[in-house]
Specification:
- Helix content is 73%, strand content 6%.
- With 141 residues, it is mainly alpha-helical.
- It has one domain (22-135).
- It has a two-stranded antiparallel ribbon with strand order 1-2.
- The longest helix has 23 residues, at 31-53.
Amino acid sequence: MIRYIRAFFRALILTLRGQKPPTLEAEEQHTDLLAWCRETLVRVNAVNTAIEGANLSSVTMHIEGRDVTLKHALDVLHYHASREYPHLIRSRDPHAILAIQATNMNDQFLVLRLSEYEGLPSAVKTALDSLVQHLTEVPTT
């Protein structure tokens, strides 16, 4: 109960001073990166739809010494764009952008390898290529 009372008074003080919470300030500084995350989710969902339509969810590839299904790889990308990247942005860590870029580079490699799978229908290949292109355009701020 004390925790909520303390949070209320912090919010009240910030409001009276005309300030915003630090997490909102961080989000306002990185609107382009958050928009990129939202677009990533749209493209991942497009690939998921194409894969489910072609009944390829269980297709497995051997990438970097691991067996990876298409569905699992897309779930990883969805998690990064929906949870991990926004959390890093809100953390205000000075290395957050670098962590996002490094993780995105791994995701980009994973999707690129998935797009090289032989036997993908053209709709899935097109959606994967669009996702790869989008992942190369991560904002730097």
